[in-house]
Amino acid sequence: MKNWIMIIAVICLIGALYMLPVAFSERRIDDHSNNSPQKMENACEIFIEVEGQKGKIPLETYIVGVVAAEMPVSFDKEALKAQAIAARTYALKTTNYGKKAIAPTVARQVYYNKEQRKANWTSNFPGNEKKIVEAITETEGQVLLYNNELITAMFHSTSNGKTESAYGYSGNDLPYLQSVTSMSDQASPKFATIKEWTLAEWNALWPVKWQANDFSRMQLFLNDSGRVERLQLGKNVWLGREVRTLLQLPSTDFKISYNKNTGKVQVATKGYGHGVGMSQYGADAMAREGKNASEILHYYYQQIEIKKIDACLK
């Protein structure tokens, strides 16, 4: 009897030892598949479709191309980081987290692919690319939220010394897009510009014919940020934005004058861009004064939070 018991025990022990490596191996594979950060990240990665570009582009790769196109690489890295966060927010809001395509134009966000960056930077490409990539990597996934929703993160090159509010730009008030002072923009090479036309050239642009004395009776109505809300000539009225488009002006902060001696119309402007949200030259000036990306963004966008998105929840 004892012999049979011993035989059975040996058989069970051999069976257990035989099954142990199999069980351990199966559990190890399951743990790897369940806990692999790489697999989870790839499964949830957001891709952006850019009009005119082949295939969809990973979000962070796309942001490298946007920052390289939208902001001078010579800017302080904290300004580049602020631009990266704003651009990422704008892209996700505009594309609904990659569900819609986005145009690579100034009407949306300019985008340069790697070949374009190499052509633009030539021998400086390695160093410039490294600086841009670092700014994107250090802010990876960070976006701007208001009431836990992505904001419309508008930005522009140079203000007229004061940013434009959303209400002043479109008539729609947004708490996070209010007018703030940005006096350091005056150091920007794009701050002040002058354009000239002959009266004949000027009239070729307008739907009405201007006479020399019309310039003295023309009226410009300004909003709170010093930009032209509307221009009125007799019964004719144009919005400042319409005049800017018509004359291809840098901004809506403009003054019009006519010189009877030369027969030239002159338009002097301040600022470059629509003026809403973050001023890029203002951001660079703040960064050089020691402000970090978070401080820059909280200054130009009020009442916002900076958070890292969880792409798996989208």
Automatic annotation (TrEMBL):
Q: From which domain of life does this come?
A: Bacteria
Matching InterPro entries: Bact_Sporulation_Assoc, SpoIID/LytB, SpoIID/LytB_N, Spore_II_D_firmicutes
Q: Which residues form the Sporulation stage II protein D amidase enhancer LytB N-terminal domain?
A: 56-146
Q: What is this protein called?
A: Stage II sporulation protein D
Q: Name one GO biological process term.
A: sporulation resulting in formation of a cellular spore
Annotated Gene Ontology cellular component terms: outer membrane-bounded periplasmic space
